[in-house]
Amino acid sequence: MANRFAGFRRISLRPLVSKSPRSVAGQVLVLQVALVVLLVACGVVALALQSKRDTTAEAVRRSIAVAQTFAHSPGVLAALEAPDPSKILQPLTEAGRKAAGVDFIVVMDTKGIRYTHPLPNRIGKRFVGTIEPSLAGKVYTESVHGPLGHEVQATVPIENPTGKVVGLVSAGLKVKNVTHQVWLQLPIILGAGAGALALATGGTALVGRRLRRQTHSLAPDEMTRMYDHHDAVLHSVREGVLIVSDDGRLLLANDEARRLLELPPDVEGRQVSELSNLDSETVALLSSGRAATDEVHFAGERLLAVNQRPMEREGGPRGTVVTLRDSTELQALTGTAEIARERLKLLYDAGLGIGTTLDVLRTADELARVPVPRFADFVTVDLSDAVLHGEEPAPTATDLRRTAVCGIRNDHPLYEEGRLIDFLPSTPQARGYGSGRAELVTDLSTATGWHAQDPERTKEIVDYGIHSLIAAPIQARGVVLGMANFWRSKEHEPFDEEELSLAEELVARAAVSIDNARRYTREHALAVTLQRSLLPRALPEQSAVDVGYRYLPAQSGVSGDWFDVVPLPGSRVALVVGDVVGHGLHAAATMGRLRTAVHNFSTLDLPPDELLSHLDDLVGRIDQDEAGTESAVGVVGATCLYAIYDPVTRRCVMARAGHLAPALVHPDGTVTFADVPAGPPLGLGGMPFQNAELELVEGAELVLYTDGLIEDRKRDLDVGMDLLRDALAGHPNRPPEESCQAVLDELLPDRPKDDVALLIARTRALPPDRIADWDVPLDPAAVAGMRDAVSRKLDEWGLSELGFSMELVLSELITNAIRYGSEPIQVRLIHDRTLICEVADGSSTSPHLRYAATMDEGGRGLFLVSQIAERWGTRYTPQGKVIWAEQAVPHAGEGPVLSLADAEALFPDEGAADSGAPM
Predict the structure, then answer these.
(1) Which of 129, 421, 501, 821 matches a 20 to 30 Å C-alpha distance to 99?
(2) Which residues form the GAF domain (predicted)?
(3) Is the whole-model pTM more than 0.70?
């Protein structure tokens, strides 16, 4: 059969041998040489043009780079501000020009007057070129005829820290130097072209000679020998080859095909359909003559990849060529590769799905869910109980809490979530926790150390079908945080050593996220604890307002939101809410400083605008102090709203520094926002704050809040304020505490991104019968009449026991006002939680306490007031000042606060009516 095909091949090649191809080979040689010459010539021209363009572009890029580098060099701005910039800049530009390989670097002012130039006589003259784009802050390149000739130059601006252009820098090259670079490269290009031409011509000549040798020098026997070699190769390859004729006869089968298909020796010439040892699908394919690509067919226990192509060569026999490839081993390798791919996919999914939040419980749950069911049937995560609170874990596995459980079924007998487990030293979990290495148990039914933990529970687990375990320590920074347990049941084969390494890598990726969540939990708890310790734990007792409040720290980090209620003299109360910019411990600590400052300034009884001015100075000083430290984080700013409500007059005075306007809930249930002038945030300085005064009816609610309540990434500020209005409206009789909860439920998401402080104050008004007012003439004789009037009012209020002490206090305060003050003089008594007396006059001079000597005739009046009253002080008003004093209202059965004997004991040698304290 082989000889017959060899004869066929010789017949088919004889017409080619009989012809003389020498002239054809020569023509091919000439044609190829001409083509190579043409291509080389075109290549030389194209390379020359390309080289010139690239060289010019390189010159422009170098000019820009040099100019920008020099413009941003240290010391350039300082040199421009020097009295003689050229003296400083000329040596620098010359050194930079030589180092950068450019022809000039010119520094000029904004009018184009040069400070530097390679030609010293050009310094001080106007720059040749366009500077307007660079004055606008742009980089500008151009080609000009300058002092050095035809030049390519780039001009860039020099900007000060505020972005203002204070000078220009121009750098460039002479065009002839650029062109010179092109001519330097041309010999290289021509040489390379000539070399390519020589190689192409030589290669073409070799191909032509080989063509002549193949078509003229070979004898028929040599051709036969060549095809015999083909037959030898055909039968030695490790791929089966079949040739099937158009009528379904097997014409050729090489040795590999005979082996793979187990064909008999006399198979050639037989019909394919007669081969009984072939699979029916394989027979159908070979008989069909259709094209096939890598179709899989069985041949006994072998898995063959079959390719079939029709023979379409003109003049040749018609049929098909079939190749057979044994893919049994390849299939096994494919299975191994698929397992590796699935494991890589598991690790990839773990990297994406574990650690999406900074929550320890959530991260542990993600670790339990990712491997199920691809790697394990059940996964449990046990973390040290201290880790859940952000603390360092315990050294032994005696306080692990089951944090997460996930499996293919929910009726498993494993320990439930939340249980505190003390693992015995013999268990795989305890061994892995102590050594820091994963433990593999291929057969739980024979693991006696594991059975000792809980014999009944372990028996249930084995009976359930769970048979294999990997206990991997969750380890980060050399510290074991807990254990991840991977369990397999009858759904999977037991774990092996290769899967042990996969479990370790999977847990290692999750350990970093769990440790980050633990550390965040600790820092967040510290920040929350600090902030809560700085906020008021209980609001003080006062009669001006009914108060409800809420403070909610953000889930992502504590910030500086705060609020306070400060009682003021005269039954008044101060309501304050603020927000420090930023998050973390620094913001919380700054909030504490501001709250303390508000308390201190409140004792001075300052109006809201003055108090905010003092806070503004304080925040500015804090920023200045911390700006000089290397690790400090500046406050940047803070907002605050401060309001003072007087239940006697029902007037509320407030001012705000960059804070949101408060909401007013009227007794009819309508809601408006107070028109309070918006001052700048604290710390900016320079702008005064303005007060707004409102008259509130009794029962109105004043709602103070921080921006975390209404601002959100998903909604605008106006939408948040509308939601706040809707949450407050329509409930005039709802207590402030319930209103606070209703507002939070309506406006806040489950996990707020910012802190929220909310303060709702429902106003009260003192009854008119608890207030007494008198106008006092500027006459010392009026003091006696005022004592009698006050005594009668105290008898009316049932406070007769306070009459003597209050008469003494009023005598001193009224006497001071008459002697050192000015008209009008007014006296007011307020019966609230305490008895308050106020003496107002038109003078702004403040009294001060004196310690009189033994022989002094006066100076003991205010000292007497300070001894009798619980508190006393001075506050200033637009009309003058008010001196006030408070006395505690005694309970039933208590005696008078100060008797005549007590007064004589305090001042044996002095009358009580002489104050001696100048105003």
Answers:
(1) 129
(2) 349-524
(3) no
